[in-house]
């Protein structure tokens, strides 16, 4: 009788472990792309800030009263890698010279060109202290939805 209960208990534990394993792996796989996008976004933000410190200006300019948005296209990345320690060599996230996220979309970069020390958040339009914000489109490939986007802030 004891062995029957022990076998039932072991079966329940095995089923619970299988459930956790399956859904745990699915969760890790679903969020790993976002973590990689966030890491790359932070790396680009740091490199753009370094570019600003080294050159005394940003890689692009616009109307002084607004923050401007750029993309990590090939031209932008060549300019960034030529000036900072950001290397394009041997990276799996470089496609035709552009820095792309896990789904092949370029990142967006918002720069504080009005030099007020704040960049307006693309989600809420609230000011965020700093000079550069970088974000990806995320798993759904839409810049407008935010729950899955990798971002530097």
The CATH topology turns out to be: Glycoprotein, Type 4 Pilin
Radius of gyration using CA atoms only: 22 Å
Number of domains: 1
Q: Sheet with the most strands?
A: 3 strands, antiparallel
**Portion of residues in helices?**
40-55%
What is the count of β-strands?
Answer: 7
Poorly predicted runs: none
Spell out the helices and strands N to C: HEHEEEEEE
Number of helices: 2
Nearest-integer average pLDDT? 85
Strand proportion: 5-15%
Overall CATH class:
Alpha Beta
CATH architecture: 2-Layer Sandwich
Structural class: alpha+beta
Query: Widest sheet: strand order?
Result: 1-4-7
Give the termini distance in whole angstroms.
59 Å
Shape verdict: elongated
How would you characterize this protein structure?
The chain is of the alpha+beta class. The chain has one domain: Glycoprotein, Type 4 Pilin (2-Layer Sandwich). The chain is built from two helices and seven strands. Strands 1-4-7 form a three-stranded antiparallel beta sheet. A hairpin with a 2-residue loop joins strand 2 (94-95) and strand 3 (98-99). It is elongated. The mean pLDDT is 85.
């Amino acid at each position: 009788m004891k062995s029957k209960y022990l076998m039932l208990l072991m079966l329940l534990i095995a089923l619970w472990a299988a459930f956790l394993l399956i859904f745990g792996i699915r969760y890790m796989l679903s969020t790993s792309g976002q973590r990689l996008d966030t890491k790359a976004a932070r790396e680009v933000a740091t490199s753009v800030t370094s570019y600003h410190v080294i050159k005394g200006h940003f890689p692009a300019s616009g109307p002084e009263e607004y923050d401007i948005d750029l993309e990590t296209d090939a031209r932008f990345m060549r300019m960034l890698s030529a000036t900072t320690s950001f290397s394009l060599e041997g990276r799996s996230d470089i496609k035709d010279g552009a820095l792309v996220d896990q789904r092949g979309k370029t990142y967006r970069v918002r720069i504080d060109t009005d030099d007020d020390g704040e960049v307006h958040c693309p989600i809420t339009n609230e000011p965020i202290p700093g000079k550069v914000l970088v974000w990806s489109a995320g798993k759904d490939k839409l810049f407008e939805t935010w729950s899955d986007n990798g971002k530097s802030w």
